[in-house]
């Protein structure tokens, strides 16, 4: 089996979250979906498990942070073009998410924007022009 990542996110409303993630381009995997959890597939290697708060609590006794006011991680997805970056942010906004909770980035060779899901989890979306990167463009030291 190839290596995969399963990102587990606590969500307050499973059906709302499933609809949101489908709207931005994830696919639901019904074999791993029930009343407490939904597996949302981004690619062959990337899966997001949306877990109700009650189910989440069966995995850890740690407090579920309020992602509307705190951030523990910034999740990032690569995109095929700058247009794809803009498109996923537009789909997220149309589905009830919030556009650009983190600063936009445009460094010529790297372009990025973000969205926040209804529970406040932040997804950064980035296109990197590897040809421009290979020409020696320096990496920025801070967000633009």
Automatic annotation (TrEMBL):
Nucleotide-binding in keyword set: no
InterPro entries: Glyas_Bleomycin-R_OHBP_Dase, Glyas_Fos-R_dOase_dom, VOC_core
GO MF annotation terms: lyase activity
Domain of life: Bacteria
A Pfam family hit: Glyoxalase
Keyword NAD included in the entry's annotation: no
Location of the VOC domain: 3-128
Keywords annotated in UniProt: Lyase
Name this polypeptide is given: Lactoylglutathione lyase
């Amino acid at each position: 089996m190839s290596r995969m990542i399963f990102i587990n996110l606590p969500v307050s409303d499973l059906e709302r979250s499933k609809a949101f993630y489908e709207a931005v381009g994830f696919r639901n995997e019904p074999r791993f979906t029930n009343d407490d959890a939904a597996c949302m597939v981004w690619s062959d290697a990337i899966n997001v498990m949306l877990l109700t708060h009650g189910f989440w609590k069966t995995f850890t006794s740690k407090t579920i942070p309020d992602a509307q006011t705190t951030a523990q991680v910034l999740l990032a997805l690569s995109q095929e073009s700058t247009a794809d970056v803009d498109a996923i942010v537009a789909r997220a906004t149309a589905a009830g998410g919030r556009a650009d909770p983190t600063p936009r980035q445009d460094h010529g060779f790297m372009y990025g924007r973000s969205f926040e899901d209804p529970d406040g989890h932040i997804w950064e979306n980035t296109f990197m022009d590897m040809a421009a990167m290979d020409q020696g463009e320096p990496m920025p030291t801070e967000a633009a």
